[in-house]
Amino acid sequence: MTRRGCDTIPSTSPDRTLAERIAALKEERDAVIFAHNYQIPAVQEVADHVGDSLELARAAAKNDADVIVFAGVDFMAETAAILAPAKTVLLPAADACCPMAEMVTAGEVRVLRERFPDAAVVAYVNTSAAVKAESDICCTSANAVAVVESLDAEQVIFLPDRNLGRYVARFTDKEILPWDGYCIVHDRMTAGEVTAARRAHPEAEVLVHPECRPEVIDLADHVFSTSGMVRHACASPGREFIIGTEVGLLHQLEKTCPGKVFHPLSNRAVCINMKKTDLAKVLAALERLDPRVTVPEETAVRARIAIQRMLDLPQEIRNP
User: Is 292 exposed, middle or buried (0-12, 13-18, 19+ CB in 10 A)?
Assistant: First the structure.
């Protein structure tokens, strides 16, 4: 209790202090911070750009800062380093990897090319730089259908996500050959969870990510990338939504679409790798300019072709 007439010292939260130090050092370093929609709220709040993989890839290609701090996982920082080779790209949580990206290797892509010589290879951005270098074009969950439809080939090797590949196959006459990879967060969501969520929130729209299993997608009202979910929720006349993706997106939804209510489809939908980045690690990365992500030039040149082919598609084209 504070006694009347006594001076008090205003409290300062650790997050606020760290955020202020990050802001000052960011200006000093001429740095920009990119954060994926799955990052913790405190990290999203200090970021200059928050979005899905497609939005962040476009931002990396266009930004003019000297330093890029990527609050995400390894393949995202690699993509930024490929698109902006003259810049210093930092990954604050050096051990933040994507398990799905590690489910396919460059050597396996070369074997697939030998086995299916007439097929085009589409690499989800959730792949390593080495895999992108062996591919014809990249895609994200927002534009996978458009990317596949842009190809002349009638047979498409789609890697590494089997669920996204199966989703694409619903909207194309091309033969999709999906690799057997998956997102450990989205793949564990079940049709039973959708049924239970609808029962608990009967007025809510169900929005799910295309990395979900087919039986989950079948029960949803809409299928979107993370940023697609944000756009739809804000524009929809509905006020209540069940969100079938990583729980980090709820912060962006609540911030961007005030007055609407959002429920996670599954409380288990947590990517531990996306949660490895915090403000202390962002600050330390800016202070030390480390951990730095680089890609060997020979790999980067080839991977850049696949990424740029995706970026050259009309920006407004997204999945149905």
Answer: middle
Q: What is the CATH number of domain 101-182?
A: 3.40.50.10800
Domain ranges in the chain? Answer: 14-96+276-288, 101-182, 191-270
Rounded to two decimals, what is the model's pTM? 0.91
**Model confidence pLDDT, tens digit, residues 142-157:** 999 999 999 999 999 9
CB count, 10 Å around CB of 180?
11
Helix (H) or strand (E) run with residue 232 in it = helix 226-235
Q: What is the pLDDT of residues 48-104, one digit of tens each?
A: 999 988 788 888 888 889 999 999 999 999 999 999 999 999 999 999 999 999 999
Top-level class of domain 191-270 = alpha beta
CA distance linking residue 167 with residue 163, whole number of Å: 6
- What pLDDT score was predicted for residue 13? 63
Strand pairing class (240-244; 222-223): unpaired
Give pLDDT tens digits for 233-285.
999 999 999 999 999 999 999 999 999 999 999 999 999 999 999 999 999 99
CA distance 257 to 239: 9
The token pair that represents 282 in the structure block: 């962002």
Single out the residue of 276, 281, 284, 249 nearest to residue 264, CA to CA: 249
Q: CB of 161 within 8 A of CB of 124?
A: yes
* CATH number for region 14-96+276-288: 3.40.50.10800
Asked if 103 and 318 count as a contact pair (C-beta separation under 8 A), the reply is no
Cβ-based neighbours of 113, under 8 Å, separated by 6 or more: 119, 121, 134, 157
CB 76 within 8 A of CB 89: no
